[in-house]
């Protein structure tokens, strides 16, 4: 694997999802080393951009989650440093990290996503129950991993839920709660080559797929492929592909859905740097297609590229 050169696995970072990123990065690093890749861990919390510029990496695998890793900032820096990287470019990464902007794009494309409201202050709560029917959920507009997430049944719960989400973000997303089955679909590739992997159903204890159940608990059950009619599976996979390409994603990603009681799929968000831990969903879907964890890591690494073409200077 020497033709891939010196590879940096960027992990850790400073977001609320640091702990998960440390696990993802360690998993990817170990898998690549087992395949003979010259891979090196690089924690963006303790090492800065000048360290990255001097590290001599020929390409990097981004195993960071959340802000300053998944949101386009790092991707822009890597473009400036001319270091090929995995996953989506600066614009798609920033767009996907912003759940509200993502939903606006999907609505423009005619894709199904639940009604929502954007909250920027406590005053915005006054009219909220006229815009959204109970129950609805509230979460930071730019965080993942159910950080700062609440489900609201009554108007008395709104203020506490808003304050919890606002601890993590200036912008808070309120969104209609969809009762039903939780599904996710990994997507690999770019453009016409982008393809959806098998649909995964997530069944958490009491329907509570929170941070603990997502990353540490063994009580959460995963069904891959999900037990769905073939036609519905194909429809959900096609929605995932359209949602991914609609936001301009590249390389790899994962699209989250709710399937309501009428078997109508609803798009929630797209992750441009999904988890790669032992509990993670992209490796699970790949395995269902006969792709090992090591092969998956290598395939993603091989797709590393620069997304912005330098304009020839006159």
Automatic annotation (TrEMBL):
Stored InterPro entries: ATP-grasp, ATP_grasp_subdomain_1, D-Ala_lig_Van_CS, D_ala_D_ala, Dala_Dala_lig_C, Dala_Dala_lig_N, PreATP-grasp_dom_sf
ATP-binding found in the keyword field: yes
Enzyme Commission code: 6.3.2.4
Reaction(s) catalysed (UniProt annotation): 2 D-alanine + ATP = D-alanyl-D-alanine + ADP + phosphate + H(+)
One Pfam match: Dala_Dala_lig_C
Coiled-coil zones: none
Chain ranges of the ATP-grasp domain: 103-302
Keyword field: ATP-binding, Cell shape, Cell wall biogenesis/degradation, Cytoplasm, Ligase, Nucleotide-binding, Peptidoglycan synthesis
A molecular function (GO) term: ligase activity
Leading EC class: ligase
Cofactor(s) the protein requires to work: Mg(2+); Mn(2+)
Major subcellular site: cytoplasm
Involved pathway(s): Cell wall biogenesis; peptidoglycan biosynthesis
Annotated compartments: Cytoplasm
PANTHER family for the chain: D-ALANINE--D-ALANINE LIGASE, D-ALANINE--D-ALANINE LIGASE B
Described purpose of this protein according to its UniProt entry: Cell wall formation.
Family: Belongs to the D-alanine--D-alanine ligase family.
Record-given protein name: D-alanine--D-alanine ligase
Organism: Paenalcaligenes hermetiae
